[in-house]
Design a protein that fits this description.
361 residues; alpha+beta; 4 domains; four-stranded mixed beta sheet; three-stranded antiparallel beta sheet; 14 helices; globular; binds zinc ion
């Protein structure tokens, strides 16, 4: 895909932005960023940037400040909307199936309906809530909060019903079973009786009382003489944070910007958090980052490769980078010492080549 950056300077032979594209039918457009609420589209032929008429009502009512610019997902470049709203621009208005843009299974929503239909949920909830507020100008705060809760659950239910009868998106991610199959993960089936009244995750009955499935599995392997380390994703985020901070926060990167985010130890403790000021590239996490920084990435891995002959050497590097990576790990929610300790254990236990593959992942 060719990226054409819009700029406002008049050039010879190029019509000014207001008239550019006026005669074009915009037969083929690409969406700049499917994660924006009011999406912007670029015409492949005339390069004009526009929005779809079907978003006009919602956009002008609720998001008027988001209508003149969009940011391209791949590069995070800000681009000016040159044509405003035009009819039949989005895929649905053109009679094409909507393309899914699911959100990651992060700290917010884990349900697939919420991750795939986030935009529909936003739109419908905002609209109904604003209508309710307009109709009840004298409502108290409690009444408004109750109405909001009710609207949220009604909208979620209506989207669930819609998905069950005529799904707009196909949930196309690999299932857990497919992931296990693809990476040939060895699975050990353990059988255990359930307790009648489970409490706080303790659902399995043992002679010593109710325990969680994790504790049950741990005990099973420990009895066989294994040393067991339960893992979720955070230790891997910590591993990434420690081993990659110097690449991501490289001061030679021209797109590096100062960013501020909440101090996560305070968030954990449930107290008012201060702001961490740190540096991240503008396009961090986007598809374009790996492409743009290909040389720097290869150089970074070549540097790590110097240390992988010897686990002691690699652990030295890990310990050396641990404190330097603090800010970046805060950003990744990989700030907890216990997760960093488990990441260090992974460095001790895994073959260096496996580690590199995980980091490159
Ligand atoms: Zn066009
Ligand atoms: Zn449309």
């Amino acid at each position: 895909m060719t990226i054409v950056q819009e700029d406002d300077s008049p050039r010879q032979g190029k019509p000014p932005p207001a008239t550019r594209g006026a005669t074009c039918t915009h037969a083929t457009v690409e969406c700049l960023n499917a994660y924006e609420l009011i999406r912007k589209y670029r015409c492949i032929t005339c390069k004009a940037i526009m929005m779809c008429e079907c978003d006009r009502e919602f956009g002008t009512r609720f998001l008027s400040h988001q209508l003149d610019r969009g940011s391209e997902l791949k590069t995070q470049k800000r681009m000016r909307v040159t044509l405003g709203f035009r009819p039949n621009i989005c895929r649905e208005c053109r009679g094409l199936p909507a393309e899914p843009a699911p959100h990651d299974e992060g700290y917010g929503s884990t349900s697939k309906v919420k991750r795939y239909y986030w935009r529909e949920l936003w739109f419908e909830t905002w609209r109904r809530e604003a209508d309710w507020n307009d109709a009840h100008p004298d409502a108290s705060d409690d009444e408004r909060a109750a109405a909001r809760d009710q609207i949220e659950s009604e909208v979620l239910q209506s989207i669930k019903d819609l998905h069950a009868t005529s799904p707009k998106y196909v949930f196309s991610e690999p299932s857990q079973a497919e992931v296990l199959e693809r990476y040939r993960v060895e699975v050990t089936n353990l059988k255990a009786p359930y307790v009648i009244a489970p409490q706080r995750g303790a659902v399995i009955a043992t002679p010593d009382g109710a325990v969680s499935p994790e504790a049950f599995a741990t005990e099973h392997f420990e009895k066989m003489g294994w040393w067991v380390m339960p893992l979720e994703s955070q230790p891997f985020h910590a591993l990434f944070g420690v081993m990659m901070w110097s690449l991501i926060q490289d001061f030679n990167d021209p797109l590096l910007k100062m960013v501020g985010f909440a101090e996560k130890n305070a968030v954990d403790a449930g107290v008012k958090s201060g702001l961490v000021n740190s540096f991240l590239p503008d396009d961090f996490g986007s598809e374009g980052y790996a492409e743009r920084r290909k040389r720097a990435i290869n150089k970074h891995f070549a540097e790590i490769a110097h240390h992988i002959e010897d686990t002691e050497d690699l652990l030295w590097l890990f310990d050396h980078w641990r404190s330097y990576s603090e800010d970046f790990r805060q950003y990744l929610w990989a700030h907890r010492s216990k997760d960093v300790d488990r990441a260090r254990r992974l460095v001790e236990l895994l073959r260096p080549q496996v580690l590199l593959t995980i980091l490159r992942g």
